[in-house]
Amino acid sequence: MDLDSLKAGFLSYVVDDIQVVTTSTLRIIGTLILAKLIIHFGSKAVEKILINKAGKIIPDNRALTLSGLLKSILRYAVYFVAAISIIEIFIPNAAKTVLAGAGILGLAVGFGAQNLVRDIITGFFILFEDQYAVGEYVTLAGVTGTVEEMGLRVTKIREGGGQLHIIPNGSINQVANFNRGGMQAQVEIGIAYDEEIDRALYVLHQMSQDFSRKWSEDLLEGPDVLGLVRFDQSDMVLRVVAKTKPMRQWEIERQLRKSIKESFDREGIKMPGPNKIFIPIRGGEPDA
User: Fold this and answer.
1) What residue numbers bound the domain in which 35 lies?
2) Taking every annotated instance into account, which residue ranges of this chain make up the domain Mechanosensitive ion channel transmembrane helices 2/3 (predicted)?
């Protein structure tokens, strides 16, 4: 074999390799671009179907929850198909191989991906039972905040301070939802021991009637004056409660405190402050 034949064979081999690499690279890039486009336009379609028509067929927060979940499912499905397609570029019939090894894969999932499976199953039951939805104020896994997103595997909670918590659904074993049903606002106020309890209660009743008219849009019941609830070291504690619409309990509590203070000041009812004890010093000032 002469030198020219070797060169020709080498060049042919190199050109074939370059063609294979180029073709494979273009197929991979095309697959990734197509996956991104499917996710993008699929997410837009989900938003158009659910969010834009929210309130007509299903509630707004329910639509947001379903939208996030469907987009999460779409993203996982597209990534899986794209990964199989890329693997098939290097390993022909990879999909058949994966299906043939489904038993082994299931065993591996059972031992190595228990948390993932638990997260997905728990997320499904959270959605099915409608335990909470996007936009609701909840306490999950010790975190209190607003649900920003609910996915197939995780739930994202935004705290009042701005922190974003990403909580695996499998770790959620108890839910406190502040948006379902009426909430209770409760205010306790102390009066001095030398004040007349009946007079203070009368002032609170009058204040409650005016307050219920002023804040009727936020109140479901009350305010109701429960009366004297306990004796503290320096005051007698009275309690006022009201039933409010969801997420309005804190504002009602603030306004109740303000109204009670103004009513007591107007009627001259004293609320005890910090005790100050003055000890006179005899024989001149103490040494520095």
Assistant:
1) 3-100
2) 73-114
Whether the per-residue pLDDT at 38 is higher than 70: the answer is yes
Q: In terms of domains, do 51 and 90 share one?
A: yes
- Higher pLDDT among residues 215 and 18, named by residue: 215
> What pLDDT sits at residue 13?
55
Evaluate whether residue 78 is within a structural domain: yes
197-214 and 249-267 are packed helices; what angle lies between their axes, rounded to 10 degrees? 130
| Mutual angle of helices 114-128 and 60-90, in 10-degree steps | 150
Considering the domain architecture, whether residues 168 and 250 belong to the same structural domain is answered as no
Alpha carbon distance 71, 168 (integer Å): 17
Of 69, 100, 131, the one marking the end of a domain is: 100
Q: Indicate the residue among 156, 177, 198 that finishes a domain.
A: 177
Give the separation between CA 252 and CA 234, rounded to whole angstroms.
Answer: 27
- 137-140, strands of its sheet edge to edge: 164-168, 154-158, 143-150, 137-140, 175-177
Residues 135 and 94 in one domain: no
Same domain, 214 and 241: yes
pLDDT of residue 200: 92
| 90 vs 81: CA distance, rounded Å | 15
Q: Which residues contact 14 (CB under 8 A, 6 or more apart)?
A: none
- As a dihedral over the C-alpha atoms of residue 67, residue 69, residue 71, residue 72, rounded to 10 degrees, the angle is 160
Does the pTM surpass 0.90? The reply is: no
Q: The domain spanning residue 15 has which CATH number?
A: 1.10.287
Q: Enter the DSSP assignment of 232.
A: -
**Rounded mean pLDDT, 144-157:** 87
Least confident of 63-67, 82-86, 87-91: 63-67
Planar angle of CA 152, 154, 157, nearest 5 degrees: 130
